[in-house]
Amino acid sequence: MNEGQWPPNEIKLLLLDVDGTLTDGGLYFTAEGQTMKRFDVHDGLGLIRLQQAGVEVVIISADRSPIIRMRAQKLGIRAVIDGCQDKGKAVRMLLEERELDPSQALYMGDDITDLVAMAEVGHSAAPANAVEAVCEAADYVTARDGGHGAVREVCDLIMNRTEKQ
User: Fold this and answer.
1) What's the predicted TM-score (pTM) here?
2) Smallest Cα–Cα separation from 104: which of 7, 24, 13?
3) 20 to 30 Å CA-CA from 43: which of 26, 67, 104, 156?
4) Does 120 fall in a domain?
5) Which band of pLDDT confidence, cut at 50, 70 and 90, is reported for residue 6?
C-alpha cells in the first residue's frame, strides 16, 4: 500500500515495541553493568504531537526496564506494558478495555515476537531494518530504521491523514 492511502483515517491507538522500533536495537553497557538505550528525539516529538491530536500511544515491550518507563513518562505516554511475553494477548486486552475495533489500531514492531501483535490489529508497520518476516507481514515498511526516525515517519503519516479529515 502506498503512503497516499496508508494509514486509514480511523487510527485511535498506536501500539509500539521498544527495542529495534523506538530504539536502534543496540544495548549499551557501562563498566558497572548498567544498561542504556538510545532513543531518537524526532520520534519523541512525533509521539507527543500524535497524542495531542487525540491518538493514544501504548508501549508494549518484552523487556522490563526502568529506562522504558522513564522515556514513556517524558513523552506523556501513560500506558506501558513491559515484561510482556504475549504481545498478542496484551493487544487483545487493550482493544477490549478501550472498546476499539482492530481497524482503529496500528502496531509497529521489528522482530518475530511482534508478529502475534501485528496479527491482532487492522494496521501494522515495521522499521526499514526489521527482520524479513516482519517486513513481509507489515502493511507499511518505513524508509527509516528503528531508533532513527521510523516511529516519527509513522506518526507523521497518521497526523497527515488525520488533518485531512
Assistant:
1) 0.93
2) 13
3) 104
4) no
5) low
Query: Is residue 18 a contact partner of residue 36, using CB atoms and an 8 Å limit?
Result: no
| CATH code, domain with 41 | 3.40.50.1000
Amino acid at 2: N
Which amino acid, residue 55?
Answer: V
**Per-residue cell: 158:** 497518521
Q: How many residues does the chain have?
A: 165
User: Does the residue 69 lie in any domain?
Assistant: no
Phi-psi region of 115 (alpha: psi -120 to 50; beta: other; left: phi over 0): alpha
Give phi and psi for 53, each to the nearest 5: -85, 0
Strand bridging mode 79-81 / 56-60: parallel
Residue 163, in any domain of the structure = no
Per the prediction, the chain carries an average pLDDT of: 93
